[in-house]
Write a structure and sequence with these properties.
395 residues; 8-stranded parallel sheet; TIM Barrel; 2 domains; 26% helix; 9 helices; alpha/beta
Amino acid sequence: MLSCMAMLLTNARVVTPAGVLEVGWVRIEAGRIADVGSGGSPSGADDRLELGGRWVIPGFIDLHVHGGGGHVMLSADQAEVLAAAAFHRAHGTTRTLASIVSAPLDEMLAALAAVREVVRAGPTPGARVVGSHLEGPFLSPDRAGAHDLRHLLGPDPATFDRMLEAAGGTLRVITLAPELLGGLDLVRHAVASGVVVAVGHSDADYAQASAAFDAGATLVTHLFNGMRPWHHREPGLVGAALSRGSVVCELVNDGIHLHDATAGLAFEAAGPGRIALVTDAIAAAGVGEGDFRLGSSVVRVRDGAVRLADGETLAGSTLTMDVALRRAVRDLGVPMAAAVEASSTTPARVLGIGDQVGALEPGRDADLVVLSDDLEVEAVMAAGEWTASSRLFHR
């Protein structure tokens, strides 16, 4: 990491909650954003970095990632978790929520404990993990997708409490199917425990999904995937989520999980602040094609798509957050400010850390990404320090 006590980034297109500053500047002091403005940059003795019109946006926050760079989050090895997060850091993700796929309970507990220790140890030069996301085991067998049916469990508060204890205060999100017996009770129990409940891998109909949102669920795991399809007479979970103003919907915007028209319509239907771009990336991200593992399942990467051996069932992605944002702007026609909201601001709010990160505003941590005109990552800053992989300094 390249440290700077005080720095002024000048002549940049700065994306703020109020909009895009076409000729803007950002002052950073002691790891935080001290000020943001437009026009001529302020005078002073700061270390100045002239950006020549490049984009400056807040660091990405990924709510759903299973691995990357050949490393997995379902691991009792803290170094493995950190290595997966470090891979995504190079692509602009400054805060990572480690997603743990359905597995034997002991393995899930060990992975939760490993994430706990990573979080307690604090940020490292390569990664900042903010907690864990349990994608399972309380999922519908009918909508399990790549989750191994042998490891799914019925909703059980006692099992959830064991997981909560293993996480030691670092369990942030759990995905579950509320239509299962005891599902609504578990929604209420998890919310009361301070955990965000996401509805996903669920066969819930519109009424059942609505009941889950009434019970406190506020997030939907990879909208359209792992749930019953939208139907004009039974809109199901998709319809319930899009019509509920308090619910945030994850989108895996890789052009594989969703047709671009579908992803674009979701942005339009949900409106501001209700879409969270996620990767759902597995260890194969950044590695290439071949066979990999997702939990206990063997998955195959061909032409960038990850599927089970059956060749049909999607099993995560090879996506990174910079690509998700770039596709939103270029392929879906989403305005830059709205794409940044979906990749940074909204995920930060979901995790309850919106007062710390997720936007370029004074007082927040200096987590930011510098992008080229083509929206390629050129530099990544986390808490006021540039990562060593930042291309801007190696030309």
